[in-house]
Amino acid sequence: MRSVLPNHTRPIWAEISASRLRDNFHALQAAAGPQIEVLAVIKADAYGHGATECAPVLAGAGAQWLGVTSAEEGLAVRASLAILPQGMSPRVLVMCGLWPGEEAGILDRGLTPVVWEPYHLDLLEAEAHRRNLPAQSVAVHAEIDTGMARQGVTPGDLLERLLARFTTDSPLKLEGVMTHLASTEVGDDPQNQVQMIAFASALQQVAAAGLKPEYVHAGNTSSTDSGYIPQDLPALAAGLGARAMTRAGLALYGYALPLESATDRVIQSEGFLKPHLASSLKPVMTWKTRIVSLREVQCGDSIGYNATFVAPGTMRLALLPVGYADGFRRALSASNAEAGGLVLLHGRRAPIVGRVSMDLTIVDVTAIPECSIADEVILLGESNGERIGADEHARLAGTSAYEVLCGISNRVPRVVVS
Predict the structure, then answer these.
(1) How far apart are CA 233 and CA 247, in angstroms?
(2) Is 358 annotated as a binding residue?
(3) What is the pTM (predicted TM-score) of this model?
(4) Which of 22, 34, 151, 361 is 20 to 30 A from residue 129's alpha carbon, by CA?
(5) CA-to-CA distance for 220 and 172, rounded, in angstroms?
(6) CATH 3.40.640.10, domain 285-417, yes or no
(7) pLDDT for 216-261, tens place per residue?
(8) Which CATH class is domain 33-280?
């Protein structure tokens, strides 16, 4: 159990299903196919699920690569993998580059950084020389910017200068080349093809420089779900004698974005836009709390901050010790004019009433008379055939399942269950 508090006693926690996490990884690998390695993305604290909790489970499921945000996150993940038998520990890719001061930890713990700026190479080379490391002993993956204007070096002169740094006597080895695509949930979006053409051009530059990376990777959950990237990636990788790899995060945790068409923005029922993956996924997290107080209010009584909800009649209310400081979003609040979010109690949906506050939320349990103090409440998860998912919270909040999951704070301990 993990929390920012040394002795966590608040009745709020998130259960992480190890079996579902394993099953989702296996579903991803099956959808990607035998020619493509799946890198399991556990950056941003495993999308709110706990990177150090999820990493050993994924390693046990067969993941050969894990992707993290930063060297700091990578060091924590590497420590969590120490429980594994020798030889089972996966590689750890630091996906957002490195910053001065991180190079020593990267080399100490065998992390693999993504690079695109010359200073990334300067830092790693200097530390490698300080340690008298042999030639081509520090593996890195270079990211190509093919159209997001975010991370990555652009094809052409800048890429040529970066590739020139990988000489036979340099301690650095170009082990992988990667790019990131902007619109994979819209499988036939022309931008995808534009980016893949740019990536192919960049790989030609890599080949012309005489470099032979072991991995070529692109794509994410949506591209695996649509089948778009698996069509092209193995051939691109084979041109360099490399292994194709795709990176998937959201699907590991049981979610996938709805696939769309660029022409009508509605999912197609046939062809490569038909989901290959989504129906196989199961949410990994069940977020729970308990009722801490019950009360009855009368018609006309106001509920919560600013009296946004006024009881239309006699109501029985349950108080839950969860609020927006825990990541239970304020957008789930309800007024008399607008319904809000829901929770599950005894397998039934109970509506939020009033505003979600910093530490507390009120729900209407009038229709669930058997409720008692200390009863378990499901904030995200399933019970008796009912389900409330991060995608449902996202619709109410006008955001994505990514943001909902990543927003669950460290006040909520994560507990791995079988």
Answers:
(1) 12
(2) yes
(3) 0.92
(4) 151
(5) 27
(6) no
(7) 999 888 888 877 665 788 999 999 999 999 999 999 999 987 766 6
(8) alpha beta
